[in-house]
Amino acid sequence: MADELVHYEVRRGIATITLDSPHNRNALSTQLRAELTGHLRTAIADDGVRVLVLTHTGPVFCSGMDLKEAGGASADQQGVNEFPAILEQLWTSPKPVVARLGGPARAGGVGLVAACDIAIAANTATFAFSEVRIGVVPAVISVTVLPRLLPRAAHELFLTGEAFDATRAQAIGLINVAVPAEALDAEVSRYTDMLALGAPNALAATKRMLQEPRPTGLGEVFADMLELSARHFGGPEGQEGIAAFVAKRKPSWVPEQG
Questions:
Q1: Which keywords describe this protein according to UniProt (predicted)?
Q2: Which CATH class is domain 6-195?
Q3: Exposure of 165 by Cβ count < 10 A (0-12 exposed, 13-18 middle, 19+ buried)?
């Protein structure tokens, strides 16, 4: 039986999903894609999981599709048709997803980063949309990447395939923050701790709100947002949060320390 390429661990409501295929730079092989899909499904379905962290072993976060598998294969066999489902799992997860990058991301790996809600990288990490340099188009990953990037940067980097560093990635919106490698885990923990303070249903609704297209008329927008606000203000989480604030205690959804 083949060794597991993606590991799954839950501690204090944080599900950590770790790509562990360093021999091919955590490329999106058939096995890795299948295991990643399964672990994401498990984390999303588990009521005890509050936040997901997508991370890696080895020096590379993810190098994109496994080109050794893709050589001579049809589009179906290359996994192109199943990769969107992984990006959609990350993008639509009702629980916040944090990407932790200790090293480079390329092509499909950048798509994974963009699909996460928050991305934190070591300042030594690099990125590239390398597709055009091997004669393919960064089409699938554009669905998650383009909403993040400044338009001028997207044109430049998609068309040239040039590698860029974490400082540039932060400046153009691909990642949230770049930190020294030795501070990476502490920064990831800082974000997951903050996210765990949010009420689960409120976080899920906020994610949906952030992703939904807005109507063009302000009146319709305000009406929709007033209804959303009132529903959660008067709901169980809203009332528990208000009661906790008044009583100067933590609300029921905040994980116990330890």
A1: Lyase
A2: alpha beta
A3: middle
Q: What is the pTM of this model?
A: 0.91
Buried b (16+ CB within 10 A) or exposed e, 57-76: eeebbbbbbbeebbeeeeee
Q: Which residues contact 240 (CB under 8 A, 6 or more apart)?
A: 199, 251, 252, 253
Catalytic residues: 131
CA distance 187 to 82: 32
- Going by C-alpha positions, the residue among 15, 219, 4, 199 that lies closest to residue 97 is 15
Strand-pair partners of 119: 99
DSSP H helical ranges for the chain: 30-45, 67-70, 75-78, 83-92, 108-115, 139-145, 151-160, 166-171, 184-196, 200-211, 218-233, 236-247
Contact assessment for residue 125 and residue 166, using Cβ atoms and an 8 Å cutoff: yes
Q: What is the pLDDT of residues 147-181, one digit of tens each?
A: 999 999 999 999 999 999 999 999 999 999 999 99
How many Cα atoms within 13 Å fall on the side-chain side of residue 24? Answer: 15
Kind of pairing between the strands at 177-179 and 118-122 = parallel
Task: Tell me the one-letter amino acid at 102.
Answer: G
In the chain, where the domains are located: 6-195, 199-247
Average pLDDT over residues 108-117: 98
pLDDT tens per residue, range 128-138: 999 999 999 99
Residues 6+ apart with CB under 8 A from 147: 114
